[in-house]
Every structure is written in C-alpha cells, then in structure tokens.
Amino acid sequence: MTSSPQVLLFDVMDTLVWDPVWIMADFFDASLEELWAVKHPTAWVDFECGKIDQQTFLNTFFLDGREYDQDGFLQLFAQGYRWLDGVEEILIELKQREVPMYALSNYPVWWKVIEEKLGLSKYLEWSFVSCMTGVRKPDPRAYLGPSESLGIPPESILFIDDRTRNCKAARETGMDAIRFQWASQLRSDLKIRGLLS
Prior knowledge:
By secondary structure, the protein is α/β, with parallel strands linked by helices. It contains 11 helices and 5 strands, in the order βααααααβαβααβαβα.
C-alpha cells in the first residue's frame, strides 16, 4: 500500500460534476464538430483564465460574432450542473475522515453557479480555479502553484482528474494522480491509498 497523501486536489468538471458542454451543440442544433468549427478559437480559454469577463465571452463565442440566445445559453449550463453518480458520497466520507480537499479546475467564473446549486464548498475549497489563478492544466504551474500555496510538497498531494494528460502532467511534478472514470473505481483507488476504509 502506498502512503496516504496529505491533501487531495480535485478536478471538477466530469470528475465531480457533469459538464453541460456535452449538450451545448444541441442548443445550437448542430453537432459538436460543426460547433467547434465556428466558435471563437480562444474565447473559452481566455474566459477560463479570467482574461475576459462573461459578457465579452458571450459576445465573442462565435468567430463571426453572430447573435444567439445568450440568456438561454447561460441557463443551459446552470440547469445542467449535477453531481456525477456516487461522487458526493465519496466526498462525504473523505470529509468525515478530515481529508483536506481543494478544487484544481480549468473553469471560468461559472464555478460560482455550481457552488450555488450544489454546494461543493461543504467538502472542498474552491482555491485553485483557473479563472482566479490565471493558469490552466496541464501547465506545470497549475500544479506547482497549489503545492507552494499550501506549503506541501507535490509528493504529498493526490490529484484526481478525468483527463489522462492532466494526470500525466501532475505526475511529472511529483504528485500522485488518479484518472477518474466512475465512482466505484475512484473509491477503490482511494482505498488502496488508505484514504477510505
């Protein structure tokens, strides 16, 4: 058994919370491929890094600046956020065991909408969201920043994310990492590390 980490860093979207981006194309009556071809190439990344505000993002979402139902677009996301099956129960158990947990997420200010709807702060702190740090995974700074801020070496941190490349980048900084697939798999991996009984 590997030694138990001191701190957990959780990705949020598609690790804890279902990402409404998967139904975004339906809102525009298009396929994801069609939507990706006409959306602005950097607006979302700029929004996630806090370089532009929400209104600027909405206005520049399409490369050609076309008009669309912006309020409906926002509602699509607000209504779509929900816990992934089984993960809140895991967070409850980790919280009961007093495991320190923080979000390490590529996301814009919409994290506040998730918080208002689901209350993730009952379990973890929204400390390292890209719109506040200005850095996105898999940039090494996205991992080393939390390590430095918390005063804990990377080797004492466990990172959990649904994307292989983000987990690989975390390991390259010295962190342990779990690629999330589903709750039962995550539970097993946390048991191996002595975090759940």
